[in-house]
Amino acid sequence: MINRRTFSMALGTGATAASLTALTGVPAASAATRRPTPAPTLPSVKGGAHTSFASLKQVKAGVLTMGYAEVGPAHGPVVICLHGWPYDIHSYVDVAPLLAAQGYRVIVPYLRGHGTTRFLSARTVRNAQQSAVALDIVALMDALGIEKAVLAGYDWGSRTADIIAALWPERCKALVSVSGYLVTNLKANLSPLAPAAEYAWWYQYYFATERGKLAMETPADRDQLAELVWKTVSPTWNFDAATFARTAAAFDNPDYAAIVIHNYRWRLSLADGERRYDRYEQQLAAAPTIGVPTITLDPALDPFTAPGDGSMYRDKFTGAYDHRTLAGVGHNVPQEAPTAFAQAVVDVDHF
Description:
It is built from 13 helices and 9 strands. The protein is α/β, with parallel strands linked by helices. Strands 1, 2, 3, 4, 5, 6, 7, 8 and 9 form a 9-stranded mixed sheet that branches.
């Protein structure tokens, strides 16, 4: 879609090119032959340099009113940063300022069931299947008038970004995906993994029980479980009690337990999705490739990192691509290694 601003820019570019040709006698380089501008090297920032966002915003998007943080110039190129479980928008509290300093408009939304994000209707199914969560972000983009953005995420956020890049590539300028290709394959999930991998997923099976559901509904148990997961999957991240508490506040959402439980039960085919999402899930079951420019990040200390330095999912990315392994980093990459994460965003935007 071309708008007035784009049209004016196009006219200006054309006039400049014509002037150069007239003055020098040499045609200006075509867009096809121009090389992309090299990405700047970002300053190193230690995780924990920031503790909060200046303010939060709220917007109606699809079936939700979504809470989100926004940092950076209002008319800058957009980056949408997506958190995982059991985390929240504070995973990006150091990443966002780094990107904003480069001129990006950074949007960090609370996923459904987290923080200030709420369902508009009490009658809406508290569904957390993968396509529903992805469509929330598409709806957010529509609500904010964002045609295309760089999408970056980890955990649930990687999956959500991967799905948008695969099914709606026209909305995704580029992609940063921690742990690679995370689109859920329900059929494949019926088969057992290696014992070590199953061990790392212990809470997934816990949530399949009524005891696990009750734990998610009981604040003290819920927070203790989340803190244990943080320590297990990020063994060198020395977060303090205040850091955890800032994120745990996002779990005090009336739909948090229902969303978490449904997400993990749905992945194991123990809970149904909604028919309205069937066509998207059918497309995702075919494991569609992703053609947008992509950088995948593998945190070396994350128990969920697949062996093979990204080789297990390399064929799923068919566009410009780079893979990086982050030594000494666990699961929550943006909060543990904010500079590396932000640098990947800036780099992929310059592919």
